[in-house]
Every structure is written in structure tokens, then in C-alpha cells.
Amino acid sequence: MRRISRTDHIGAYSHTVHGTGCRFVSDNGTEVDVDFAADGSEVFDLWRLRRYGLGRFLRIISLTR
Known about the structure:
Elements: E1 7-10, E2 13-18, E3 21-26, E4 31-36, E5 42-43, H1 46-64
Antiparallel strand pairs: 1-2, 2-3, 3-4, 4-5
């Protein structure tokens, strides 16, 4: 298993390790938050996917006005 610092930048993304996961934010503000299960697999739950989808939708709407 590779260890990363709790807060850092990787390319165009900053990341913050929290609880059981990690939040990534791109230079343009796009956020991806992922948790990790006990077996190491990634977990995307409905709340996070909904939040991401609504954020993208609102960003598109604001660009078309």
C-alpha cells in the first residue's frame, strides 16, 4: 500500500485525506470524494454522486446564462 501525505497536490489536483477516504479538488474546482472499504476498494455513495452531479449541473447552467 502506498502512503500519501494528508494534504498535498498531485498534478492539477489537491487532495485531503479524511476519515476513511480522500477528497480531490481540481484547479477548476471540480471535487471528487471517495471512501475506501476495509478491503481497499473504492466506495462512491449516492450522496457523493448526487452532490457531484448537482454541482456539474449548476455549473453548466451558470455558463449558459
